[in-house]
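Request: Mind sharing a record?
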Amino acid sequence: MANVLVIDDDPFIGELLVDIAKELNHNGENALTLKEGMALAREERFDVVFLDVVLPDGNGLNALPELQQLGNCPEVVIITGKGDSKGAELAINSGAWDYIAKPASVEDYLLHMQRVLQYRTEKQASRPKLGHHNIVGRSTSIIRCLDQAAKAAESHVGVLLLGETGTGKELFARAVHDNSSRRTGQFVIVDCASIPENLVESILFGHERGAFTSADKSQKGLISKADGGTLFLDEVGELPLQLQKSFLRVLQERTYRPVGSQEELESDFRLVAATNRDLEALVQAGRFRQDLLYRLQAFTIELPPLRQRGDDISSLARYYLNKLAVDFGASPIAISEEFLNTLKFYSWPGNVRELFNVLEQVFTANTAAGEFLPIHLPVKVRVAAAQATVLPSTESRNTLTVIQGNKFKKNKNINHGQEIYVPTRSNTTPFPQLKDYRDQALEQAEKLYLESLIMHCRANMNEAAKTAGISVSRLYALLKKYDIRKKFILD
């Protein structure tokens, strides 16, 4: 038995859809406003949501992203005005299961209800599970990727992993291999970005003795080693253009010819490719073959950046710090909630890889710590947290945008290429005066400086005062003002 939610300000439509759901032996509830409907949806007990576009308190399409992020990830059917083709297109592009154009007959509503409920039942019944893997996280976005990887593992088609540097593309590639029927074969990695262009053909296809000057003996290529297993082409966007045609033939025929050989050899491998590049843009620029891109796109998984996985940061931090303790043969060190919360304010442009590098620095530099505190983190991470506490608090945070015509673009930090996160202005929260804002910012910066200074000088007050260019008495006064002496010296 499924649960159906109807969010529509027309009582007739809401009651009609609820009655249809009950006639099909399912449960149904209806809400007349977006606020009321989303409050019900957040209970995460509905399988299907019928969502109107024009509601008294907002646009239903704006609620689509939140509905898709819910733990139960309900199927969403949009109800839109007749002839509103743009609304229908936007609904489908935004992830809606389908849409119903108003006005609609009872038969149309019944048909949509039957189809979406049948799809939901089949989807849940056939949902595969990904077995052994080392992927940490329970956020909706990463669970969705794990589900896709599980489906890919059950098939024999090629897989294309898309994502920024450090998002875990190789980890997902291994998970697909380890859960596939080819798990007993080799997982062969080809780093297309690091292979010298003049050697890439030999490394992939192998070569015969005497094929070129330094070929003093015959050698098998990586394609041969992947026979019966998986060939992982990492950073496939860097594959030289002249080699792409040859590799496309290998994918089509499963045969290849070693350099210097006249014999065609066979290799039965499963291809998994990954890239952080925009392959469509490379095709338009003439740097990547479109026919090869079509072959790679058989099954595509887009991995989310860490900044979109805020709920996973604490789990990742705990996992890696405990792993480091095991690797170093040391006792695990307690991790404060303040430490974990501070991590969430940084944008992590290097994603999970950057997070792990920072945690490794923290662990190796503070092995005698009784508990990991925010002060143990690099200044750039603590500054991001300090800036977030200084800026006006609101109910939501968003990327700073710059208006260009009728479009909005993300504002990037010129020096570091990082996204700048600032809260969006609330109608109920007064914006601070410049003086108050400046005073708060200066206090936060001063406190951060003093904490780092004391750590740097290992609580040597004379050295710290000299380094800061102030008197020892002034230093003590500042430490007392910010309660730093008690927290970082006397403990």
